[in-house]
Amino acid sequence: MKRIRYSKYTGDLAEDMDLEDLMQKLSDYLLDSGFQDPLSQFQELNGEHTMENLREALRQALEYGDFDQDMRDRLEQMAQEGQIEQLIEKLIQRMEQQDYIRIDEAHDPSRPATTAGETGDGQTQARFEVTDKSLDFLGYKTLQDLLGSLGRSSAGRHDTPFQSTGVETNGSIRPYEFGDSLNLDANATLTAAMIQHAAEHPGESITWPIEVDYPHLHVQQSDFQSSCATVVMLDCSHSMILYGEDRFTPAKRVAMALSHLIRTQYPGDTLSLVLFHDSAEEVPISQIARVKVGPHYTNTREGLRLARSILNRQRKEMRQIVMITDGKPSALTLPDGRIYKNAFGLDPLVLSETLEEVARCRRAGILINTFMLATDPGLVQFVQKVSAMCKGKAYFTTPHTLGNYLMMDFLNRKMKTVH
Q1: What stretches in the chain show pLDDT beneath 70?
Q2: Pairing of strands 228-235, 318-325
Q3: 95 and 191, same domain (yes or no)
Q4: Which among 182, 221, 283, 324 counts the fewest CB atoms within 10 Å?
Q5: Residue 383 CB: number of other CB atoms within 10 A?
Q6: Distance in angstroms between the alpha carbons of the first and the last residue of the chain
Q7: Same domain for 154 and 165
Q8: pLDDT at residue number 305
Q9: Among candidates 261, 287, 260, which has minimal Cα distance to 273?
């Protein structure tokens, strides 16, 4: 008689695994900034987004990742059966299907090799791109971590010292003026009508209906809420990964979290990203995860000039620059386009031109908030000068506390109008 042996159904591990959890475990690899951290499990991958590196990153995440005991037992069983490679391929397929990554098509082998990185037969290594969905998720997780450390779960819109007659009231009532929203306060309106009726007909009882006229109208006030245009100026000079510390990756994570916060909680706001090093360029915020540190010098003046140009195109009531840096200005773009560089101390020419650009921002009504990742005395003095000129704020912080400072500033104090 034929026998049938039954065993416990364990399901398809590639389908059971939480891709969001897996993406978070890969975040250090996906957001690599060029810093060679000897303690990072992905240091040998150099942040290169090749398919072979992705497979290796997944292999390490599966081997060293923090999984629950049941998942760990299933992974160990698959390793013993030699099925880890098949699992990795299935996970890559799921990541592509669910739009976490986008795999580039391989080059035609018949095409001659003309660019660096191609193999002898004209074929490059297959590569992948991190999609906007992945960046949005990583930004959300970073924001969740930052707001959790601040003890907050949500954020409202930007409040100002001014008041309007919107829908959300704060209990304050005043007579209606032409142009106000008709957010009428019925009690105050009827009371005003009855007072006038009693004054005009002394000794008579009030009869209904009572006549309500224009002077009787009262409206409830609400806090006037405004929109803001923000440019994050991110220093990507080489010093951001020198001296045994990665300062650039935390700054990238904060920019991603800020982008997610603005998009979800402040839909009327805009956020732009400017990278400054030897020169400066605007980068789409969606590309922040792909950015790495650049050349060695710090052209703060060019970054400010570009940020001011971007903000001048924004029709917002409030405009600000959030500058994250760890180095003093050491470069300057000359009128003929050449880059003047001097890394030794605060060069008088570079300093004067940079402060002149700060003055232009002040005259344009642009606030500059600076987040410092260093405590060099000369740099501290420069930042204090910038803050005094623009009535902005300076925060001397570290890569570990940058997010706390920046989120606190954005949520609580960024919109405070300086008179």
Answers
A1: 1-11, 33-41, 43, 46-47, 105-125, 143-171, 179, 181, 221-226, 244, 404-419
A2: parallel
A3: no
A4: 182
A5: 23
A6: 93
A7: no
A8: 96
A9: 287
Residues 303 and 374 in one domain: yes
- DSSP for 260-271 reads HHHHHH-TT-EE
Residues 286 and 356 in one domain: yes
Please return the burial class of 184, using the count of CB atoms within 10 Å of its CB with bins 0-12, 13-18 and 19+.
Answer: middle
Contact 301, 329 (CB under 8 A): yes
Q: CA of 215: how far to CAs of 193, 195, 243, 278, 309, in Å?
A: 8, 12, 70, 64, 47
- Residue-wise pLDDT for 311-342, tens only, equals 999 888 788 898 888 877 889 999 998 999 98
Could you list the residue range(s) of the whole structural domain that residue 186 is in?
A: 161-223
pLDDT at residue number 222? 60
Burial of 80 (0-12, 13-18, 19+ CB in 10 A): exposed
Which pLDDT does position 355 carry in this prediction? 92
Maximum distance among all Cα pairs of the chain, rounded to whole angstroms: 110
Tokens 């994250």 -> residue: 324
Question: What's 293's domain CATH number?
Answer: 3.40.50.410
